[in-house]
Amino acid sequence: MIKNNSKRKPIVKLKAFIPVLFVVLYLGACCPYSAALRKNNSMFSVEKSNDKSANTINKEEKVLHTADRMPQYSGGYAGLTKAIEEKIVYPQSARNQGIQGIVLVGFVVNKIGEVKDVKILKKVHPDLDKEALRVVKALPHRWIPGNHKGKRVSVFYSVQVVFNL
Question: Which has the closest alpha carbon to 120: 33, 3, 4, 13?
Answer without folding.
Answer: 33
